[in-house]
């Protein structure tokens, strides 16, 4: 534990040492942070020196703002291949703007610093919180293994240490920037890097971090510190007191002048007519141009590395490229690219990149090559191109826009080709996309179709099932009642059973045949729809005339049933017939006048309910038969029977309609003219009675029959049974 | 396990076979896939010695005469130099002498030098006697090897191996600050990176065939201002 604590306390940025409190100049007085760590005397001296230096530098160097525009103009005026030029111009333009903005802000604060520092320290330069936030985020992204997998404490410490270092680093650089020359600053920065490296090696926080990760952390720290500093004008990038800007311009002009230098002068094997070669060169040039927009030295190095890899591929058509090939090709690339602020960028990297990285590694190697290329271009003579002095001078005297037009054309062609490629790739992508969309659409359509089919099939299945449920009911009752009906009317008509029986089946048979396929639904719906309107129509009429609310409905229903010619409704209604009882009771009130025959059953209904449940099995047959018998003889026997059974049984067309018309009219007339109730009751009760009596006695039968209906085969057996008694009753 | 990181620069006139030497060496290492993007101009390799690992960064240089003035940028901070000449060309051997002088005057820190006579397969055309070359090498404290990029894999391996061993020695003498050495945590010798020159134990070969090394074999230069772009 103790060594750990000691190590932590040794961390420079987190603790103030005794020595730190002394004047930085090394005189024995104590320093003061207000005086930048000097004692008052040394600080004054320092300030004077600084002001002098500043005056001198501002005198020798023209203001950057005034310098830049003419450079931009020159570039555009001489531009030979427009695309790069445009990019270059844009970059310098945006940067200039940023520079102007920040420059004024920052410059102001720093001058304030000088003027008022004696009485008060102006608001401390604050590092915007975005830097810290960005670091946190980036740290988590780049070192997930550090941020997550390890136990929380050390990883947090690593993160914190990095941020603390970056903060102190930035502050230190900004503090020193006015006091130090660039070389001193560079040295200081390098020492900072080393300090952090040492810190990583010694601190307990980094004990679990392996060497490779430390390198990455170093890069990480460098990147964030330098990215921020790079954006501040004239601090680290083409700083005050250097000739970077002037050299930039000089280099740019020089490169333009040398635009006539071709591949054969440099003895590099480049084939302008080869498309791939042009592409690679184009890529290399883009990377090189991108170097200016990268902010940290590490990123700039990465750009250079990518550029050089393209160049390497460019010259390694047959054998792996060696340095003998690389350097000329790179020189050529630089000449064709004419990257913006090349010298500033190179100086920035050499000064402020972690030296360890710059001296070693692939990036370092390529960067060295770039430096060589630049230095070669700077010192280019006739001799270095292996040509006559005269010829060289001749070339150099030539306007810059003429030379190298072939390559410029080739490259702009390349740019266009590249754009075309991109467009084509995009088109391909779009086409593929549309294809997939089409496929999906087809799939969707197929799905929809199959779904539809499935649904249709299901519906069919359901229909195929449900008809089986419904029809047997219809058919069987029909058959049964047909038998009754057929027999009854036939009997009435005087025809024999033999005729009656054969006739109805043909009638019944044709119905089921069409029904199962489609018309069942229609049937049902029609019935339902017919029911409702008729209910309404009739209901109005009936209600108007008749006082009892329920009875008319019953009547209507019965009417409907008759009209619609469906037995279904008849059968269901009896099943849910409990209301019917009450109605029958209501009816009983009215039927009092009507018939004695029905009264007893109506009255008995109430009492019987309970009793009959016991009886039902036995008595039903006995009672049904007698009751059916009396009904038949009753005046409308045939009619009634035609009512109930006919409507459903026979197709709606014939008898139902006939019967309906006749009877409805008749009924209505009766209702209108006569005390309808009597007649109606007389009719209704019959059917109700049939139903009512049947239900009371027969519901068990019917219910059984219905229950059995579900099991289609048995229904055939069971259903006839209720008929049989009737039929049997009739014959008997 | 001790790990040394060193930068080694390959110098020599154009056409002496620097590249083919390097390609031959890399080619063996990356026999399966020699990526054109890596090229032969820069590569890193790990050489495992008895008790240490040497991470070599090999920087090839352009041999053309017109790039001669740029050489300081390449050999700055280098820890070792391979001076390659063509045994059929006296001029290339003379150029080596020039390189040595330049190195000695420009590089402040101790450096491992190796003189390599390339194209030993062209014995018939030999223009530089091996005794002469060896004598010169001894005079500058370098070792001398003759190699052939065509046939002689052994010699090329030997060159790099010797250099690695010398670097190890150099690092232990603590004379050189730019030579980065540290103790690596991963002692696991099975986890040798692909750059290992010989798959079958570099250790014993390195041990057996090492020539005797003294501090004399390390060149010292006078301190002069470094050129820089």
Automatic annotation (TrEMBL), chain A:
One of its GO terms (cellular component) is endocytic vesicle. The keyword Glycoprotein does not apply. Residues 64-73, 109-124, 498-512, 624-637, 674-683 have a biased composition (Basic and acidic residues). GO terms for molecular function: DNA binding; guanyl-nucleotide exchange factor activity; small GTPase binding; zinc ion binding. Residues 700-715 have a biased composition (Polar residues). Residues 17-51 form the A20-type domain. Residues 50-89, 109-131, 493-521, 616-637, 674-732 are annotated as: Disordered. Pfam families: DUF5601 (PF18151), VPS9 (PF02204), zf-A20 (PF01754). This is Rab5 GDP/GTP exchange factor.
From TrEMBL, chain B:
It holds the Pfam family Ras. InterPro entries: P-loop_NTPase (IPR027417), Small_GTP-bd (IPR005225), Small_GTPase (IPR001806). Signal peptide: none annotated. One of its GO terms (molecular function) is GTPase activity. Gene3D superfamilies: P-loop containing nucleotide triphosphate hydrolases. Keywords: Nucleotide-binding. Belongs to the small GTPase superfamily. Rab family. This is Uncharacterized protein.
């Amino acid at each position: 534990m103790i060594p750990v604590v000691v190590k932590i306390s040794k961390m420079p940025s987190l603790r103030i040492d005794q020595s730190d409190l002394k004047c930085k100049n090394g005189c024995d007085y104590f320093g003061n942070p207000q005086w930048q760590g000097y004692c008052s005397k040394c600080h004054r001296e320092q300030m004077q020196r600084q002001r002098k230096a500043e005056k001198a530098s501002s005198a020798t160097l023209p203001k950057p703002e005034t310098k830049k525009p003419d450079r931009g103009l020159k570039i555009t005026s001489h531009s030979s291949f427009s695309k790069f030029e445009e990019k270059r111009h844009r970059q310098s333009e945006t940067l200039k703007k940023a520079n102007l903005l920040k420059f004024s802000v920052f410059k102001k604060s720093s001058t304030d610093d000088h003027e008022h520092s004696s009485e008060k320290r102006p608001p401390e330069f604050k590092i915007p919180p975005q830097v810290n936030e960005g670091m946190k985020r980036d740290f988590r992204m780049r070192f997930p293994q550090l941020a997550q997998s390890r136990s929380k404490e050390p990883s947090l410490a690593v993160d914190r240490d990095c941020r603390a270092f970056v903060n102190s680093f930035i502050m230190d650089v900004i503090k020193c920037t006015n006091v130090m020359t660039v070389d001193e600053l560079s040295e200081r920065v390098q020492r900072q890097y080393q300090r952090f490296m040492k810190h990583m090696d010694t601190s307990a926080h980094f004990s679990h971090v392996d060497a490779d990760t430390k390198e990455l952390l170093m890069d990480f720290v460098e990147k964030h510190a330098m990215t921020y500093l790079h954006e501040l004008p004239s601090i680290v990038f083409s700083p005050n007191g250097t000739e970077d800007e002037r050299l930039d311009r000089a280099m740019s002009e020089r490169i333009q002048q040398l635009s006539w230098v071709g591949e054969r002068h440099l003895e590099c094997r480049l084939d302008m007519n080869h498309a791939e070669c042009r592409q690679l060169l184009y890529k290399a040039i883009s990377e090189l141009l991108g170097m200016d927009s990268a902010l940290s030295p590490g990123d700039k190095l990465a750009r250079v590395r990518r550029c050089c890899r393209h160049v390497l591929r460019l010259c390694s058509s047959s054998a792996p490229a060696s340095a003998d090939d690389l350097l000329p090709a790179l020189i050529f690339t630089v000449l064709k690219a004419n990257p913006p602020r090349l010298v500033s960028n190179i100086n920035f990297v050499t000064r402020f990149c972690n030296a360890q990285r710059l001296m070693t590694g692939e990036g370092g190697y390529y960067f060295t090559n770039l430096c060589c290329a630049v230095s070669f271009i700077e010192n280019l003579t006739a001799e270095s191109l292996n040509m006559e002095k005269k010829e060289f001078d001749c070339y150099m005297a030539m306007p810059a826009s003429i030379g190298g037009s072939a390559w410029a054309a080739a490259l702009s062609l390349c740019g266009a080709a590249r754009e075309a490629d991109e467009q084509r790739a995009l088109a391909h992508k779009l086409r593929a996309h549309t294809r997939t969309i089409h496929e999906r659409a087809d799939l969707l359509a197929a799905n929809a179709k199959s779904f539809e089919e499935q649904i249709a099939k299901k519906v069919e299945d359901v229909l195929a099932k449900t008809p089986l449920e419904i029809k047997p009911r219809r058919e069987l009752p029909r058959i049964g009642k047909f038998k009754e009906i057929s027999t009854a009317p036939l009997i009435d008509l005087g025809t024999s059973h033999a005729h009656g029986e054969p006739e109805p089946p043909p009638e019944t048979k044709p119905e089921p045949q069409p029904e199962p396929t489609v018309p069942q639904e229609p049937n049902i719906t029609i019935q339902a729809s017919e029911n409702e309107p008729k209910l309404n129509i009739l209901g109005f009429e009936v209600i108007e005339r008749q006082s009892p609310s329920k009875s008319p409905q019953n009547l209507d229903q019965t009417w409907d049933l008759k009209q619609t010619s469906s037995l279904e409704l008849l059968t269901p209604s009896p099943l849910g017939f409990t209301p019917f009882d009450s109605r029958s009771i209501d009816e009983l009130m009215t039927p009092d006048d009507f018939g004695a025959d029905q009264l007893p059953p109506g009255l008995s209904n109430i009492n019987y309910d309970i009793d009959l449940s016991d009886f039902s099995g036995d008595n039903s047959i006995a009672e049904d038969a007698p009751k059916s018998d009396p009904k038949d003889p009753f005046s409308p026997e045939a009619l009634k029977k035609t009512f109930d059974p006919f409507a459903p049984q026979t197709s709606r067309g014939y008898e139902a309609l006939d019967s309906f018309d006749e009877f409805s009219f008749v009924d209505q007339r009766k209702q209108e003219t006569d005390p309808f109730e009597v007649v109606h009751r007389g009719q209704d009760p019959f059917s109700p009675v049939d139903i009512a009596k049947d239900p009371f006695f027969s519901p068990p039968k019917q219910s059984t029959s219905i229950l059995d209906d579900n099991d289609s085969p048995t229904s055939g057996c069971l259903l006839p049974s209720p008929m049989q008694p009737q039929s049997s009753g009739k014959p008997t | 396990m001790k790990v040394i990181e060193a930068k080694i620069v390959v110098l020599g006139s154009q056409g002496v076979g620097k590249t083919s030497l390097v390609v031959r060496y890399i080619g063996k290492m990356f026999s399966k896939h020699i990526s054109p993007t890596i090229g032969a101009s820069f590569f890193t390799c790990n050489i495992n010695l008895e008790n240490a690992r040497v991470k070599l960064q090999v920087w090839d240089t352009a041999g053309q005469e017109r790039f001669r003035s740029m050489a300081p940028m390449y050999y700055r901070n280098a820890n070792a130099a391979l001076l390659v000449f063509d045994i059929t060309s006296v001029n290339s051997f003379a150029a080596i002498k020039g390189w040595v002088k330049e190195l000695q005057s420009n590089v402040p820190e101790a450096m491992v030098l190796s003189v390599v006579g390339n194209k030993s397969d062209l014995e018939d055309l030999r223009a530089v006697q091996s005794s002469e070359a060896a004598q010169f090498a001894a005079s500058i404290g370098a070792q001398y090897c003759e190699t052939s990029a065509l046939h002689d894999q052994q010699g090329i391996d030997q060159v790099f191996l010797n250099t690695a061993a010398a670097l190890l020695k150099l690092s232990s003498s603590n004379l050189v600050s730019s030579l980065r050495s540290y103790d690596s945590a991963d002692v696991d010798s099975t986890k040798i990176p692909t750059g290992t020159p010989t798959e079958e134990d570099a250790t014993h070969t390195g041990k057996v065939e090492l020539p005797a090394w003294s501090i004399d074999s390390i060149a010292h230069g006078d301190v002069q201002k470094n050129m820089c772009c």
